[in-house]
Structures are given as C-alpha cells and as structure tokens.
Protein: CAP domain-containing protein
Amino acid sequence: MGPESTDAQRTPEWACTECGRRHQKHSPPCSRCGNATLRKDTQHADEFEDVGSTGWLDVLEAKYVVGYLVTGLFLVTVLLATAGVINLPGTADGNPRVEDVPGNGATVNGLDIDTVERLYLDQLNDRRAASGYDQLDRSHQLTELATFHNKHEVKQDYGDGSGTTERQREGIIGDACTGKYYRADFAFTTDELAAKHPEPYRNESVLATTLVSAFVENTEEFSNYSRGATGVDVHAVNGEIYIAQFLC
Structure:
C-alpha cells in the first residue's frame, strides 16, 4: 500500500488574522477578539491546540475588568467610611457644605456679606496693628471651616441641626494649622449692634466696624492672639447676625 496522502493527515483550520486564534470551522467573527476575517490553514493533528474549551481570559473583556475594579474600590471605600476610617464627600463629617440653612449668607439688608467679611478682617487688622500685634491672613481652609461651623450654629438655633464636632473641624482644617486652633462665635441682635452704632446697616463698612467692635469686646484675648491665619463667616437670620472666626 502506498503512502497516505499528506492532506489526509492534516485537518483544515481557520486562523484569525488579528490574534491568531484557530477555529475548527469558518464561523467568523473570532471567538477571542471579534475580528471578522479568518484565514484557512492546515496543520498536523498533534499540533492542535485545545479548541474545545475556552479559558476565562479569552472571554473577559477589558471593560469588564475595569468595571469589577471600580465596583471593588467603591465597596472598599464605603466600608472604610462606615468604619470611620475615611470621610466620603457629601457626608456630614467630610464636606463643608451644609444644606437648607435658614437665613442668608450672601446679603443682609441689601449689603453684600462677602464685602462685610473682607472689611471686617481689614478693620480687625487695623486694630491689631495699633496694639502692636501681627496681621491676620485669610486662610481658605479656615474660612471654609468658619462657614461650615457658623451654618451649623444657625441650623441648631433655627432648624434641626447640631453643632460641629472636633472631628469635623479637624477634617476641614487639614494642614492649615500645625498646632492648636482657636474659635469664637456669637449671634448679635439688631439692638446689640445698634448699641455700637446707631445705623449698623448703613453700608458694608459701617456694619464691618460694628461687628469688629462687638466681637472684640467679647473676645479681646482671642482678637489679640499672635498667630496669623484666620477664617471668618457672617450669616444673617431673623434679625440676627451670626459671626464665627477661627484662628491659628
């Protein structure tokens, strides 16, 4: 008997032109990469790779891997936040925003509160300079903290809120203070402000001067403290002016 045909010893296959995966039938697209072009090929049976089973690496697409990683990271973050190890944005312990605060933190009697806060610090620094004390520089983090704290004070008095905690305050301060920080907060009625100036709401400068006088009178030691970073917030509600100041 003569030798068998070489073709009889070979089995036709279809190889993907992109990733090289071999298929027993011409049934595009490629089961591994999705390429639509398969090239006919033949090889000895002992050269066959195992095409009867597909490993998980063949079908696991990159987008699913990313999805699993993101989901896992989210779950770990939630667990850490629940355990109190970290603070999630939007939670009470980690975010300086306070929702549904009564009153107004932008204007009072037609006056711009941002301007009042700026003039307040300018005039407080003038008083400190006259007494031989260093200037106070406005710190973004301490200003955020003063705003957060002041709004909590307003909600505690006029809503359903509560005061800030040490953990919340330290979380917002971050690295703005290397040591101890000081805070003072007061609520002044219109009558109390009028005792300092007959027309406390005449303009932003007059209101700032009035607040400095009222604040310093109640916090002389605080106002003369020698360190130089501070944050101030003013909030108006129901005829009262709430002011909070942090310093370190």
